[in-house]
Amino acid sequence: LFMSRGPVTLRSIAAKKLSAPIETAPVEGCSNFRNSLDLKPDHAFRPMWVCEDGRIMLESSSPVYKEACDFLVAIAEPVCRTRYMQEYQLTQYSMYAGASMGLRTSDILSAMERFSKTRVPQKVKEDVTTHTSRYGKVKLVLQQDRFYIECPGDPEVLEELMRDDVLRGFRVVRNAAEQLRVNDMRGGLAAEKAVQASGVDGDTVPEPVEALAGDDHFRASARAATEEEDELGASSIEDFEVDPSKVREVKERCAVLQWPLLEEYDFRNDTETPELAIELKPETRIRDYQSNSLARMFGNHRARSGIIVLPCGAGKTLVGIVAACTVRRSCLVLCNSSVSVEQWYNQFLMWAKLSEDRITRFTADHKKMPHKEACILVSTYSMLGFGGRRSAEAQAIMDDIKRREWGLLLMDEVHVVPANTFYTCTTQVKSRSKLGLTATLVREDGKIEDLNFLIGPKLYEANWIDLQDKGYIANVQCAEVWCDMTAEFYREYLKGNAAVQRLLYAMNPSKFRACEFLMRYHERRGDKVIVFSDNVFALKKYAIKLGRPFIYGPTSQKERLDYLGQFRMGNEINTIFISKVGDTSIDLPEANVIIQIASHFGARRQEAQRLGRILRPKSRSDSEFNAFFYTLISRDTQEMFYSTKRQQFLVDQGYAFKVIVNLVGMDSQETLAYSTARDQRQLLEEVLVANADAAAADDEDDDAAYQRGIQQDSAPAVSRKRGDVSALSGGDGIAYTEVRRERNALFKQRDRDKKRQRS
In degrees to the nearest 10, what's the CA dihedral of 708, 712, 717, 722? Predict the structure, then answer.
């Protein structure tokens, strides 16, 4: 680089290039902000850059990193948070969330100027001003089982919303007087037709409609109906009712119009809703990040609707319990499986002082009617979202759930809510505030943005690496082990279809030996090992060959509890093989090693959920890392592509994957399975004989059981299985016998007539 070219060196050429204006030619995937961002003289002491497109880069090595990070978590969405550099993105909903916490526009802009290395771009200032100044002027209110949009003190804003063609279709008009006022607000539409259609003479004032007791909205409408026509035209409407089944669409449309709906519950001044006698036990202690997340929800002494994101094992359940104890009103908790229902039920009784008759479960095994006054009900999404026929007792409970006004709707694993079968849970239940909890706010179908309309904005997201450094979660070493495929296996891999390829790279002999090597190494250290495999054929082969127990869909509940109990408490079982049924709802705090041999394509959420099985804090600290996460990958296969995609979420959280090409010491161990060419050929023959169809049948059984674990209690699971003609005809495994069957009465009569004729 520094070789002389006459009197000019390459270094001088580079210096001239750097001093010359930079051409801003568009480059795909890149943005050049050098000409638009001017560094401040003291930029070295400031921690972040603010770009024109709303991206913000934060240096975690800055002395004021903590203050800047807290500020960005309040107003921006975390995109990537590595150990030394973090990226955030200003979005419409993140700025709404910041405004909902009481941050004023001037506060946000001044903090940006204080922390930024460059001048804050004018476009960013305009966006912040636009979004934060409009928040809070439009409210969504639940009163007497009806939803209203209110604009107190801003009739012009309400008029703008009422003139919108989309929102007009979601309105509920209950009397002719209200229709007259609506038409007047629309700019003089045919009010006379509305009166004639209601059967009221145009020269007379309609009779007021009888209002419900305590319903201020209907009393206001009734009083307005008795006023003179000139006063009617000059009056202004402060609210209007919307269809409860269209609340999601109303929120979405208001966001498009840049008038976001404010959902807050003033529970301290609510004297109409029955109060629940619940409080935390004196010995209950919450951590600082849990307190910070709850402060985002109750910052102004009201309950805001939104989502809190905490890592697996960081105490999301306790956060939800503290929120319920703060609101002290009826609370509905929704989980994704009956196992989670039992965990929430037991955790409530463990951490809170609550009478047992005030907390009930609604599952297939528990159908006790909730307390007629304030209570806590724990159920599953599938129980509420089921659309078929129910038993009489289940239907009575569902009617009670729909009839109540719940003070708090708690949704565990909230990332499942946008699914078509589950999102109706948010529309069927009338709640004054909603809180969603999850560790992985990510979906592969792109529907994660729907949570902004279904629940609310993200209120808080913890930094996984910060919690790890403080000892709140385990310090995990992530590694990707590359396993070469043998020549015979790779030859069949290149010839096979996609299903056969997946089976071959899961049953790779090199991967088999690497799994056994790592398992035995960690067992000698006294570790507890979980081996995950989505491929049930591989799961069985590995577990049976290595002599370890395995759990998958058809495994009975008793057998599961026995294996898990021995894994937790004893030394007889230190390694257990589990299929996808162990991704969630299995609490194994003793486990500190995970080995993945087969996964579900490129699912980022599954990768994070499996890592969460070993994130519980560990007492062992004899090395830098006290937990290990291995992913075994067959080299030069499609599995490498899937693995890179799966790791993206954890990489964005700051985890680094170490690539291991060679496991030191593995080749010298001749006792490992499938170490000889003969054994490897025999394994290949078993795999090819089994073929992909048989393996797929096992996977379908596991999928069906997995769905029963998530969607149980509602309807029997349906799965597609292989079969033959004898099975379809009912002759599978049945001995042939002749049975004298009773003849139809018509044929009996015909036989009698024939006998008479012969005689």
Answer: 10
- Bridge partners (DSSP) of residue 362 are 367, 379
Contact 417, 425 (CB under 8 A): yes
Residue 23 Rama label (left phi>0; alpha psi -120 to 50; beta)? beta
pLDDT band at 616 (very low <50, low <70, confident <90, very high): confident
| Angle (CA) 366 371 375, round 5° | 95
261 neighbors 136 (Cβ within 8 angstroms): no
Residues sharing a CB contact under 8 Å with residue 592, sequence separation 6 or more, in sequence order: 474, 527, 528, 614, 618, 620, 626, 627, 628
What DSSP string runs through 601-653?
TT-HHHHHHHHHTT-S--S--SSS-SEEEEEEEETTSHHHHHHHHHTHHHHHT
Side chain identity at residue 107, one-letter code: D
Q: At what angle do helices 65-75 and 92-100 cross, to 10 degrees?
A: 110
Confidence of residue 327 (pLDDT cuts 50, 70, 90): very high
Q: Cα–Cα distance between 498 and 181 in angstroms, integer?
A: 64
What the block records as the tokens of 217 is 């909205």
What distance in Å separates the CA atoms of residue 431 and residue 244, rounded to the nearest whole number?
11
Domains of the chain: 33-134 (no CATH), 141-200+214-259 (no CATH), 264-462 (3.40.50.300), 471-697 (3.40.50.300)
**pTM for this one?**
0.75
Question: Which element (helix H / strand E) includes 331?
Answer: strand 331-335
Q: Which residue has the tokens 């010298």?
A: 668
CA 260 to chain centre: 22
How long a stretch of residues is the chain? 759
- Band of pLDDT at residue 548, cut at 50, 70 and 90: very high
Which residues lie below 8 Å from residue 207, measured CB to CB, with a gap of 6+? 200, 225
Token output for 649? 């979420």
DSSP state of 741: P
- Distance in angstroms (rounded) separating the CA atoms of residues 380 and 546: 37
Phi, psi (deg, nearest 5) at residue 262: -90, 125
**pLDDT tens digit string along 364-378?**
888 899 999 999 999
| Sequence letter at residue 313 | G
* CB distance 125 to 250 below 8 Å: no
**pLDDT tens, position by position, 688-718:** 887 655 555 565 555 555 554 444 433 334 4
Chain mean position to CA 586: 17
Residue type, 408: L
* pLDDT, tens digit (0-9, with 9 covering 90-100), for 117-161: 989 999 999 999 988 888 878 888 877 778 888 887 778 888 888
Provide DSSP, 352-363: EE--GGGEEEES
- What counts of helices (H) and strands (E) characterise the chain? 31, 31
Higher pLDDT, 27 or 258: 258
CB-based contacts of 650, cutoff 8 Å, min separation 6 = 478, 604, 607, 608, 611, 657
Residue 80's SS3 state is: strand
Q: Pairing relation of β-strands 359-362 and 8-9? A: unpaired
Q: Which of 224, 226, 189 is nearest to 205 (CA)?
A: 226
Range among 54-63, 296-305, 452-461 with highest mean pLDDT value: 54-63
Terminal-to-terminal C-alpha distance of the chain: 121
